User: Which sequence fits this backbone?
């Protein structure tokens, strides 16, 4: 959250201490990746152009995806 955003998002993972973040274009090109701890949950995507992206979070609990929008 927030979504849409100016490019700074807060990630609130469920039930996992470590997770991998990947942000991809709608066409599937990876534009941001990071390994993160549960308490490091802010990502800065202000360097990316405005548009829609897919956020993928992978953890021991599973994989989740969400569409995010940068204004």
Assistant:
């Amino acid at each position: 959250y927030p979504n849409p955003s100016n490019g700074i998002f807060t990630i609130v993972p469920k039930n996992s201490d470590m997770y991998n973040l990947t942000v991809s274009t709608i066409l599937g090109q990876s534009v941001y990746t990071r390994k993160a701890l549960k308490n490091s949950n802010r990502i800065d995507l202000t360097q990316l152009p405005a548009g829609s992206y897919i956020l993928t979070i992978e953890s021991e609990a599973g994989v989740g995806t969400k569409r995010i929008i940068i204004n």
Observations:
- The longest strand covers residues 51-59.
- The mean pLDDT is 89.
- The CA atoms of residues 39 and 56 lie 18 Å apart.
- The chain is about 0% helix and 55% strand.
